[in-house]
Each structure stands twice: as structure tokens, then as C-alpha cells.
Amino acid sequence: MGTNFVWDIFASVTDIVWGRSASYEVKLAEGRKIALKEMTAKARELGTNAVIGGDLDFETLREGMMMCLATGTAVTVN
Questions:
Q1: CATH number, domain at 66?
Q2: Which of 14-18, 19-23, 67-71 has the lowest mean pLDDT?
């Protein structure tokens, strides 16, 4: 996921003045939603109906680029 130059400037100001950046929080929430959706879709592809032991990791790849990775174990629950 990418942010843009304007977001980066506002995020920097927000970090200094108020301590939290709503623009980055929105992007992180969007990344979380996409990662979980893709993880559950992959679990369905494998023929399972649940994911256990889920974990989310967030990384900054480079300036303006973020990654959210969802991992878990796909299982079938009877």
C-alpha cells in the first residue's frame, strides 16, 4: 500500500503536534482489512472453513510504502 507526499507531510506535523496520524491509521486499517480478506480467501481455496492462530504484521518497506501481512493456520472445523 502506498501513501502519498501530502499524507507524509500531514502525518509528520500530526506526530509533532498531536501525537497520532489519522491518515496513517486509515491506511493501516485498510491494509488490515485487505490482508485478512486475502488470508480467509486463501483458506477457502484450500477447502478449509476456519483460520486459527492469526497474526498481523505491519512493515514500512520504504518511505511512503507500507505492508500488512496476515498469517494463520487454515483448519477444517466440524
A1: 3.30.110.70
A2: 14-18
